Amino acid sequence: MEQRAFEQIALKLRLKACQASRLLGADNMEAEDVAQEVMLRLWQMHKELKEESRLGNLASLMARNLTIDHLRKVKTISIEEDDSRHLQTTINPATTLEETEDEQWLRQKLKQLPTTQHTILYMRQVERLSAKEISERLGIAETSVSTLLARARRSMLEEIKRRYNR
To answer: How many Å apart are CA 16 and CA 48, to the nearest integer?
Structure first.
């Protein structure tokens, strides 16, 4: 598709993307962000696009997927957040001390992971990136990302088991 043709239908595509995002529960600002991302992705592939009649459907589908990804990211709790204090229901100093020690121990064990495993675990758990996104960012195969992520998780599980099976 030529640039001029794309520019002529861009407004319609943006509106379709906003609509699809709002239908899934995104507020106006989130829907605009999603629509902008859709438009960027469509522009990046505009030379390969041929059928104008199906572009509206493609924009809607992309917007739905991006909105779902965004909503998943919002609902997750990262491994790096330090808000666990607000979840405490007791004021028992011994419990508070124990939880603080557990947090410090966990942070130390995370830092001891090999750099690649730690990075991939961070990108997956904190940044909520998919294996494909991680592989693209790090320039490694998607299967390698899955393997390294599994190793990192297994290592952490083994450390936890060792700590509590004294």
So the answer is: 20
